[in-house]
């Protein structure tokens, strides 16, 4: 039975100027770049530990065969745990989105190598769910009564479980989830759906893709749920690899991922994650994520309480400057090795 409590005020987050810390991370996890050592794939569970390992085990085995070296799965149980593993250099390859994907590239020595292609963009959205036949029966009914409902949501680092619904549903109405609901509990998309289905929460946040998976695994509980609201399509999931890996290894990983859709086993692996395939991508693929974070930070600053207007404007200016710096860093073409020619060569 989840224990509901009002969470502490979310600390202000600034988007770090891109790539400033990478110099200090240049040699982190270089051991994993050595041929023969295990490649460590990191994913965030949206279900239980066993389901997560079963879902990702075929891809891990496939990557091991493709690279000719061992591979293993790491599934940190929270966003903070994933960030800590990335910071320590414990992960070589990860499937991420949102602020954590931005941090992986700008703070933790990773680079984007591929972008996921959702199998159905209509499912690739945040959904707000309620228990069928119980209040609130509609979104309007929920919004009309503050401090009444219990919410099951994701962590504050989660795009689908926190930032997107806050940005698209609550902030435009002058509301914040932390103040609007009587109580909140944080969990995965699966546990959020279970909490609503079992009457432990009145409303919850998950995604259309995870709700479809929930229907397969918990058909009885799924029948108790109703959807009250859907977000705009979410940014695509991104695959990031450690920069310390040899460029040839990163290229082989990207080539393998983008070829999965060409074989039946690969298609089955993709279907497990509601993907049609992967396409090659670089750090500029983070711009969609960065844009949402920027809008969220600006809207939060505009609606926040400040000692005076000057303080608000100072915060807005800082947000604009940090976003401009991040955009410039992400838009920058990847650095190529200089091709130098000796004077003797140029004479030929």
Description:
The chain is an alpha/beta fold. The protein has two domains: 147 residues, D-Maltodextrin-Binding Protein, domain 2 (3-Layer(aba) Sandwich), CATH 3.40.190.10; 109 residues, D-Maltodextrin-Binding Protein, domain 2, CATH 3.40.190.10. 43% of the residues lie in helices and 18% in strands. It is built from 14 helices and eleven strands. It has a six-stranded mixed beta sheet, sandwiched between helices. The protein has a five-stranded mixed beta sheet with strand order 7-6-8-5-9, sandwiched between helices. α1 links the parallel β1 and β2. α3 crosses α12, α5 packs across α12 and α12 packs antiparallel against α13. The longest helix is centred in the C-terminal third of the chain and has 23 residues. It is globular, with a radius of gyration of 22 Å. The N terminus and C terminus are likely disordered. Pfam families: Phosphonate-bd (PF12974). It comes from Pigmentiphaga daeguensis. This is Phosphonate ABC transporter substrate-binding protein. Keywords: Signal. Belongs to the phosphate/phosphite/phosphonate binding protein family.
Which features would summarize this protein structure in a list?
single chain, 348 residues, alpha/beta, D-Maltodextrin-Binding Protein, domain 2, six-stranded mixed β-sheet, five-stranded mixed β-sheet, 43% helix, globular, disordered N terminus, disordered C terminus, Phosphonate ABC transporter substrate-binding protein, PhnD, signal
């Amino acid at each position: 039975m989840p224990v509901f409590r009002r969470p502490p005020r979310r600390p202000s987050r600034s988007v770090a100027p891109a790539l400033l810390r990478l110099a200090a991370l240049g040699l982190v996890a270089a051991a994993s770049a050595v041929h023969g050592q295990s490649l460590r794939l990191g994913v965030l569970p949206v279900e239980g530990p066993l389901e997560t390992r079963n879902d990702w085990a075929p891809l891990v085995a496939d990557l091991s065969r493709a690279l000719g070296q061992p591979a293993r799965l790491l599934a940190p149980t929270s966003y903070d745990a994933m960030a800590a593993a990335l910071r320590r250099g414990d992960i070589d390859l990860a499937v991420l989105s949102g602020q954590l994907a931005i941090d992986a590239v700008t703070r933790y020595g990773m680079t984007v190598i591929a972008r996921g292609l959702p199998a159905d963009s209509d499912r690739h959205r945040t959904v707000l769910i309620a228990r069928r036949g119980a209040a609130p029966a509609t979104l309007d009914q929920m919004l009309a009564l503050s401090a009444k409902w219990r919410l099951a949501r994701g962590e504050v680092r989660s795009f689908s479980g926190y930032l997107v619904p806050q940005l698209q549903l609550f902030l435009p109405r002058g509301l914040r989830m932390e103040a609007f609901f009587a109580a909140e509990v944080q969990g995965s998309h699966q546990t959020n759906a279970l909490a609503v289905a079992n009457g432990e929460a009145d409303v919850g946040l998950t995604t259309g893709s995870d709700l479809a998976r929930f229907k397969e695994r918990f058909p009885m509980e799924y029948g108790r749920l109703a959807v009250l609201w859907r977000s705009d399509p979410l940014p695509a999931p991104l695959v990031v690899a450690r920069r310390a890996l040899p460029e040839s290894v990163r290229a082989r990983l990207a080539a393998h991922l983008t070829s999965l859709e060409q074989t039946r086993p690969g298609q089955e692996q993709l279907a497990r994650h509601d993907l049609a395939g992967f396409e090659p991508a670089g750090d500029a693929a983070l711009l969609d994520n960065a844009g949402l974070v920027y809008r969220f930070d600006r809207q939060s600053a505009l609606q926040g309480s400040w000692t005076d207007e000057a303080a608000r404007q100072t915060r807005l200016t800082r947000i604009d400057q940090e976003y401009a710096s991040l955009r410039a860093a992400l838009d920058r073409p990847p650095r190529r090795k200089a091709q130098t020619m000796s004077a003797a060569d140029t004479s030929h």
